[in-house]
Amino acid sequence: MEREFQSHTFEPIFDSNSKILILGTFPSVKSRENNFYYGHPQNRFWSVLAEILGTETPKSIPEKMRMLIENKIAIWDVVGSCEISNSADTSIKNVEPNDIGIILENADIKTIYANGKTAEKLYNKYLLNQTGREITALPSTSPANAAFSKEKLVKAWEIIKEDLEK
C-alpha cells in the first residue's frame, strides 16, 4: 500500500463551554471528501453519540455541529498531517500533531477521550508531554472495529454522558 502525504483541512469543533474533548486519529478518505468529521456512512460516531445524548442522529454538518456545541462536546483529531494509505490508521507515518492547546486554552475541558486505541497511542506519543493531560480510550466507532456492535459501543461511550452530568 502506497502512502500519500495528507493534511487535515477542517477546524476543530468547540466553544468556550465545551467540557469533553473527543480526539480521533486523522480524517478518513470519506471525511476528507465531505470536509467534516466521521463522514464514512458506516462510521457509528454520530449515531452512538446521539443515542447516549438522547437525541436524533444528526444528518447535516450544521446539525452535527449543533449537537456537539449544545452538549458541550468538542471534537478534533490528534494528527494534523501525515503520510497515510487511504483511511488506514495503521499506515500513519511522519506525524505532525494538531495543536490542541487551541481548545484547551479556550474551553473548560474536563476530560479528553480517544475514539479508539490508535488515537490514544498517537496522543500519548505526540501530545501528552505538551498537554500534561491524560486521555481515556473508548472503542473506535470506525467500521473497521467490527468486534464492537453499536450496542456495545453505546454502553462503552455512556461514560461521556456521565461526565457531562457531573
Question: What is the fold's blueprint, element by element?
Answer:
Layout: E1 4-7, E2 20-24, H1 29-34, H2 45-53, H3 61-70, E3 73-77, E4 79-84, E5 93-97, H4 101-104, E6 111-115, H5 117-126, H6 128-131, E7 136-138, H7 150-164
Parallel strand pairs: 2-3, 2-6, 6-7
Antiparallel strand pairs: 1-4, 4-5
Helix pairs in contact: 2-7
CATH class: Alpha Beta
Number of domains: 1
| Largest β sheet strand count, sense and barrel closure | 4 strands, parallel
User: Reading side by side through the largest sheet, how are the strands ordered?
Assistant: 3-2-6-7
Gyration radius, to the nearest Å? Answer: 15 Å
Portion of residues within helices: 25-40%
Q: Can you tell me about this structure?
A:
This protein is an alpha/beta fold. The protein has a single domain (4-160), classed as 3-Layer(aba) Sandwich (Uracil-DNA Glycosylase, subunit E), CATH 3.40.470. It contains seven helices and seven strands, in the order ββαααβββαβααβα. The longest helix is centred in the C-terminal third of the chain and has 15 residues, at 150-164. The radius of gyration is 15 Å and the shape is globular. The model has no long low-confidence stretch (mean pLDDT 93).
What features would you highlight for this structure?
166 residues, Uracil-DNA Glycosylase, subunit E, four-stranded parallel β-sheet, three-stranded antiparallel β-sheet, 7 helices, 7 strands, 35% helix, globular
Short description:
The chain has 166 residues and is an alpha/beta fold. It has helices at residues 29-34, 45-53, 61-70, 101-104, 117-126, 128-131, 150-164, and strands spanning 4-7, 20-24, 73-77, 79-84, 93-97, 111-115, 136-138.
